[in-house]
Amino acid sequence: MSLNYRTLNLVGFVSCVLLLVSALIMQHVFELEPCPLCIFQRVAFMAAAAIFLVAAIHNPQSTGQKVYTFLNLAALISGVGLALRHIWLQNLPADKVPSCGPGLDYMLEVLPFTDVINTVLKGSGECAEVSWTFLGLSIPWWTLFAYIALCAWCIFSLKISKR
């Protein structure tokens, strides 16, 4: 199998889907309830997955490849920012952690969407809680690594598929 643009984007799509499936397994099998920042990080993975899939189906020439790469990097870099914010909240001293706010479902019902985004990005006490680690790193660290790897994959895909 050759490493053409379509194949590279399908690999990116499958990677995002596997990351989202692992998040759902953690939520439903291991009963780790996601905080609002976790949900937003999932949305960034969903956006990247959608862009990878559309890019694979479309399989554009040079200019289109650059556009898809830019869009995907925008989604993934927003995920990097969310993961960094989450890591920062988890490393705050206990007395500096913001108080827990209402759930995301409630906020979406009651508040305007822009207020929901502002509230979630400020973080809450539940976002500062470390409920699971692997090799000493919490879930936001692992999502950060995944975002960085996918950013590198986007750039690699653009470089390798020059036509």
Descriptive overview:
The protein has 163 residues and is an all-alpha fold. It has a single domain, classed as DsbB-like (Bromodomain-like). It is 73% helix and 2% strand. It contains 7 helices and 2 strands; from the N terminus they run H-H-H-H-H-H-E-E-H. Strands 1-2 form a two-stranded antiparallel sheet. The longest helix is centred in the middle third of the chain and has 29 residues, at 62-90. It is elongated. The mean pLDDT is 85.
Mind sketching the topology for me?
Layout: H1 5-28, H2 36-58, H3 62-90, H4 104-110, H5 113-122, H6 125-128, E1 133-134, E2 137-138, H7 139-160
Antiparallel strand pairs: 1-2
Helix pairs in contact: 1-2, 1-7, 2-3, 3-7
What does this entry show, briefly?
GO terms for molecular function: electron transfer activity; protein-disulfide reductase activity. This protein has 163 residues and is an all-alpha fold.
List keywords for this structure.
single chain, 163 residues, mainly alpha, Bromodomain-like, two-stranded antiparallel sheet, 7 helices, 2 strands, 73% helix, 2% strand, elongated
For the residues shown, what is the average pLDDT? 85
Identify low-pLDDT runs: none
Q: Class in CATH?
A: Mainly Alpha
CATH homologous superfamily title: DsbB-like
Shape descriptor: elongated
The number of distinct helices, counting runs of at least 4 residues, comes to 7
User: What is the third-level CATH name, the topology?
Assistant: Bromodomain-like
**Ends distance:** 17 Å
